[in-house]
Amino acid sequence: MDIRTVGIVGAGQMGNGIAHVFALAGYDVMLTDISGEALARAMATIEKNLDRQVSRGKISAETKAEALARIRTTQSLPDVGPSDLIIEAATEKEEIKQRIFADLLPHLKPATILTSNTSSISITRLASRTDRPEKFMGFHFMNPVPVMQLVELIRGIATDQDTWDTLHEVVKRLGKTAASAEDFPAFIVNRILMPMINEAVYTLYEGVGSVRSIDESLKLGANHPMGPLELADFIGLDTCLAIMNVLHEGLADTKYRPCPLLTKYVEAGWLGRKTQRGFYDYRGETPVPTR
Ligand code: CAA
Question: Pocket residues for ligand 1 (CB within 6 Å)?
Fold first, then answer.
């Protein structure tokens, strides 16, 4: 199937990055969110990140203008219904995602492919509540979307080969690389990444190292671009906890139990960069460890 128009549901951190890369690749994008403020913030972020690419010589000012012109925004969910491909990138809560798909169904074309950018929720279960489980897939982008090379393609039990092939072509047109994952809790990237982050929090909790020494160790000792606690703040501690809970419940293995200190930070509302406090405090000029 030839994909030309793409509807993106949710204008947060992931939704705006996804809109950015699709518009740059020449797709017509309709971005929707219930909040007009979130849509305005998303457009400002996309413009800032495109400017960054212009100033580094990655794209021209003309390409930036063309990409921006390809993105339309709407607060009305049914407006994205007629798209060839829909990517749900709303909050990582299953009941919210289920509601969005239920509300979208009456407005879809028969051929529309439905996808979710979920980082851990069962694709098969999300698909089973729609009228097109064979045209439903997990389409998982990494943050920051314009920079990260990988996209995970997750096949639900009923997903057909045409749908997988179509999305594989889309990933190639975005200039990214696809990894194929089966539909088990947290797929590939988060199945491996989150237990590492959770272990870093345990290392802090047990006093083995400080925030700084843990992050420095992984940056300098394992060549990671960010330390695990800095990365947790970047992803959002609520998201990290939600994924650990999915692993813990879905695989029923105590090795995935979330660290109580991670739970404590989330209870405090210290969710990382987005709330300006997590393992670091971002309110000043430079981030300061909070423990
Ligand atoms: N949009 C466009 N370009 C961006 C950008 C954005 N949002 N953020 C950074 N960039 C670009 C910069 O312009 C720069 O470009 P050049 O190489 O052309 O100079 C490049 O990316 C590097 O940026 P910086 O120099 O500002 O900063 P950095 O070197 O410290 O890199 C980083 C920043 C790319 C975020 C790097 O620290 C990194 O790779 N961190 C790890 C990120 C990661 O692991 N992401 C996956 C998280 S897991 C996930 O997303 C899955 C999930 O479900 C939770």
Answer: 49, 52-53, 56, 58, 119, 142-144, 146-148, 189-190, 193, 225-226, 231, 235, 239
